[in-house]
Design goal:
Elements: E1 6-10, H1 14-26, E2 30-34, H2 40-47, E3 51-55, H3 63-71, E4 81-85, H4 90-98, E5 103-106, H5 111-129, E6 135-138, E7 141-144, E8 149-152, E9 155-157, H6 161-172, E10 178-179, H7 180-188, H8 197-209, E11 215-220, E12 224-229
Helix pairs in contact: 6-7, 6-8
Length: about 230
Amino acid sequence: MTSAKRIFIIDDESDLTDLLRYQLKREGFKVEAKNDPFVALSAARDFNPDLIVLDVMMPDLDGYQLLRMFRSDNLLNEVPVVMLTARASVEDRIKGLESGADDYLGKPFDAKELVLRIRAILKRTTQQSKVADGCIVLGNVTLDEEDHAVSIDGTKVGFTVTEFKLLQYLLKRKGRVQTRENLLFSVWKFDTEIETRTVDVHIRRLRKKMADADLRIDTVRGVGYRLVEKAR
């Protein structure tokens, strides 16, 4: 029997977190909620969630700031995030998604819709995490994690150790925006004081070597990069 998925909720409205905790527990999830954004990061690390539900409009420390903290944390940077907000304009939605959110839901919302979105994200991330025989296969790109080898359309392509780690990181997070700071921390193990142009140089090298791939690395202006499949 599979263990219950763990959902962590951060919202300064206690009535809302109580309602969501009740609804999600009814759906079979294990739930933890915090109303104080300042304790959210440490509490989330302790809870080890499968998904985070995050409010945007909170005093002193808002959801965008918290999201950046999650995406820079080595324990939480891969955890999918659904953002909740009363500001649901196209611009706000784009800002949330470019900051690294996986979905964006405007208030007021139907709890059933939130549950459906959570299940869809968890299903997608579970499928993405399945790796057969130590290989990640996406489009015509195969990355062998054991042999540290990459082939494109059946032809082996030489990658440096750092290029390999960078591609591996992006493949595992396909479709999700990764900030330069997060890439530096996760791939190079540097903090954000190191020059971010290091990332840009390596991305250019990856793009050249992946010219024949069914994948491309998009630049998200002012934020970072996202690996996606090319349209066919």
